[in-house]
Amino acid sequence: MKQPQSSPFPGDGLAPEARGKIAAFPQHALSLRGATVAGRLADVTLDLPAGALVGLVGPNGAGKSTLLQVAAGLLPAPGAVRWGGRDLDTVPALERGRCAAWVPQEARFEFGFTVRSVVAQGRFAHGDDERGVDAALARFDLALLAQRPVNRLSGGERQRVLLARALATAAPLQLWDEPLAPLDPRHVLEVLALARELVRDGSTVLMSLHDLRVASLLDLVIVLHDGRLRASGRPAEVLTPELFAEVFGVRARLVPGLSLELP
Amino acid sequence: MIPGRFLRWVFPFSLLLLAGLAVASLAVGDMVLSPARIWHGLLRHDEIAATILWQIRLPRLIVAVLVGAALSASGLVMQAYFRNSLASPGLLGVSSGGAAGAVVAIACGIASLSLWMVPLAAIGGAFVATLSVVALARRGASTERLLLAGIALNALLGAVTSYVLSTQTAIYGRNTQILFWLLGGLDDRTWEHALMASPIVLAAAFVWPLGRPMDLLSLGANEAQSLGVDVRSLRRRLLVHSTVLTAIATAAAGTVGFVGLIVPHILRLVVGPEHRRLMPLSLVGGAAFVLVCDLICRTSGDVRLGIVTAVLGAPFFLWLLRRQA
């Protein structure tokens, strides 16, 4: 899979813009200090710079979702999480909705809210001002589905609704739990292109994913194994054949393969 | 933002409907009163009408309206809380808890100490049920788990009620009073009962503004929290108020089932799932529904209210269950 042309990638390391951002804002977009959730996550410490597109990888049960929930403030980890240098425990509930957006791995919708009203929930912390809701809908090809009840959508459509809602929050920290899994190839590329745009505007996107080929195209990669931080850094440094063998139990080989891009 | 159409048309229309039903409820009975006579009676210009209205029909009307509003709003809140459209006070055992509490209070004799002993005991019993369901079923629980927890609680709390009944057989008066709770009804409601039900207004005023965060909660607690809802505090408030609403309604009129299930469901079909609209409408709609059921009771030879709501509600519930499958 290939990155959209707009990407400052290839290969190793942070986008140049991101490097500039780090220099300008020494505060990290997200910091974890010894984040621990009994039985699921052990003593994870990491810092994510502002303006970085970060992949979170690891085998099933490695603690990816748990880490994202801790980072989003959804699982208690007193004193372990900082957003933009600010201790999460000091951020009031409503303000959290403006600081970080979290997209669950899968959603079960019991009630038939329309697609538009679910996306508009992203503006709850902004006083329900509806700003950017239509743009978010358009961005995820949901304009035509806007009045459809969310409990009658396919898995991929539901995922796009949740991503559109996260986009509508305009939060500078975006935490997405396997956003690409249920999407078709075109929407995978759209989401990656969008993430790229958000990052260019200074946001930080942390997404868990299973496709290591996609992970290798991101700015930074975090590898979790059995609830512990196994490695983190630029993909070229982190995603080594040894790590593939040790963590994922697969043999990695670089070969010319299928490449997809947006028209 | 609530669309103007709702504020301008739907909600006023529902209030008008409720007013019409209220007039009908005052008019119908052993002695049918014309609207003109109701007017004169309320102003005490017409002696006989005044006695009928002020002694019998008005307190009954007020209790019916408050009980209906309370049960319906309580059901709506529980559905959002458990993220399950089949949750309701009756099915989860909260009504049974309230009844068991009230029955114990009557049996111990403490009910005669004060007007507020029965509601307080009902609140205590209802909380036992609510907290047990929360512990058993967890939030966002599957329908099966929720209903099974409800079955267990209904059985257990029903056993408490039955036990009290069986030990009180010697005291005939007390037993009739207890049976009243098991059947649910609005007969012989006095101003005392209307006063007993009055805290419903307060609890309803507390839940009224929670519609918007309830929207977010009803789609997932984690999601709601990440979007800026203080989920813990919201949940606590919803749980307390929905339990109190059901408990007080039960104390005032006994176990009246299915109101909290039917009314929010019908309203959701009409105005959609947004709680900013559902909340006010479910209060008005619940009151209207109970008034209709009460009119059926009175025109069909004094069938108990709980029986009418069950006859209407049980098939509706089965239909919902089938549709969900």
| Overall mean pLDDT of chain B | 90
Helicity of chain B, as a percent range:
over 70%
- List low-confidence stretches of chain A: 1-25
Q: Based on DSSP secondary structure assignment, what is the total number of beta strands of chain A?
A: 10
Instruction: Return the string of H and E elements of chain A.
Output: HEEEHEEHEHHHEHEHEEHH
Taking all Cα atoms into account, the compactness measure Rg of chain B is: 19 Å
Given the C-alpha coordinates, what overall shape of chain A results? Answer: globular
Question: What number is the mean pLDDT of chain A?
Answer: 87
State the distance separating the first and last CA atoms of chain B.
34 Å
Note down, in words, how this protein is organized.
- The complex is a heterodimer of chains A (263) and B (325).
- Chain A has ten helices and ten strands.
- Chain A is α/β, with parallel strands linked by helices and 263 residues long.
- In chain A, strand 9 and strand 10 form a beta hairpin.
- The N terminus of chain A is likely disordered.
- Chain B is 77% helix and 0% strand.
- Chain B has 325 residues and is mainly alpha-helical.
- The interface between A and B is medium-sized, with 35 and 26 residues.
Q: What topology does this entry show?
A:
The complex is a heterodimer of chains A (263) and B (325).
Chain A: H1 16-24, E1 30-37, E2 41-48, E3 53-57, H2 64-71, E4 81-83, E5 86-87, H3 93-99, E6 100-103, H4 115-120, H5 133-139, H6 155-168, E7 173-176, H7 185-200, E8 204-208, H8 212-215, E9 220-225, E10 228-233, H9 235-238, H10 241-248
Parallel strand pairs in A: 3-8, 3-9, 6-7, 7-8
Antiparallel strand pairs in A: 1-2, 1-4, 4-5, 9-10
Helix pairs in contact in A: 5-6
Chain B: H1 4-27, H2 35-42, H3 47-82, H4 94-108, H5 117-137, H6 143-167, H7 172-183, H8 191-197, H9 199-207, H10 211-217, H11 221-226, H12 231-253, H13 259-271, H14 275-299, H15 305-324
Helix pairs in contact in B: 1-14, 2-3, 3-8, 3-9, 3-12, 3-13, 3-14, 4-5, 4-6, 4-7, 4-12, 5-6, 5-12, 8-12, 9-12, 10-14, 13-14
